[in-house]
Amino acid sequence: QVQLVESGGGLVQPGGSLRLSCAASGTIVSMIVMAWYRQAPGKQRELVAGITSGGSTNYADSVKGRFTISRDNAKNTVYLSMNSLKPEDTAVYYCNAVIKSDAYTTRGYWGQGTQVTVSS
Q1: 38 - beta bridge partners?
Q2: CA-to-CA distance for 36 and 50, rounded, in angstroms?
Q3: In whole angstroms, how large is the CA radius of gyration of the chain?
Q4: Which of 1, 17, 18, 112 could serve as a FRET partner for 64 with CA atoms 20 to 30 Å apart?
């Protein structure tokens, strides 16, 4: 069984920065793709950023140039560095990972979510 645990959310003023972390634990052969999603009240969950095992990244247009996704394969951890935060970035941020656990099992997992609130 695999678990994803997020941390680093909180309250920040507009223009501020936060760094989210998501650590995977359990039986992990490889983490194929790791990503961050967010869901604001009354809105659908949306992809914020993703990173492959090879380090290729993609970002939502709304966060390009402000957010950076990175990963530490030795620690089975993915990070989201968020700069120049705006009130519209307020949401619950979820970690998602596609993980290979053994020769026959590859599936996606979700973390529990961490709240990010951008407000003065």
Answers
A1: 46, 93
A2: 6
A3: 14
A4: 112
